[in-house]
Specification:
two-stranded parallel ribbon, 26% helix
């Protein structure tokens, strides 16, 4: 009987810890403002893409070598784009919570 109580207490503590972590993680993220914006960037030769973060990637073959970012106006400055070895890399510089 005593072991069961300790296990329940452990489960409660674990649940509280997970809840506290969720609040902490979401509280540190930059929340999107809901205002739609876009930015265009010209690129050199690219043969691959490496995406890290909260992105939806839409690729379209074209003679233009452009990348267009679309999203919350306040989050676009937090996106870093660079080309290394012909691979376009997209990363967020901070934790974000897009609204669009």
């Amino acid at each position: 009987m005593r072991t069961v109580r300790l296990r329940r207490l452990g489960a409660r503590r674990f649940a509280l810890l997970v809840g506290a972590m969720m609040v902490t993680i979401t509280g540190c993220a930059t929340r999107g403002d809901g205002e739609a914006a876009s930015q265009r960037f010209e690129l050199g030769e690219v043969h691959g893409v490496d995406v890290g973060g909260v992105f939806v990637l839409k690729a379209e073959q074209s003679s233009d070598r452009l990348v267009e970012l679309q999203g919350d106006a306040n989050l676009l400055p937090l996106v870093e784009l660079d080309v290394q070895g012909g691979v376009l890399r997209a990363r967020t510089l901070a934790s974000t919570m897009p609204q669009l």
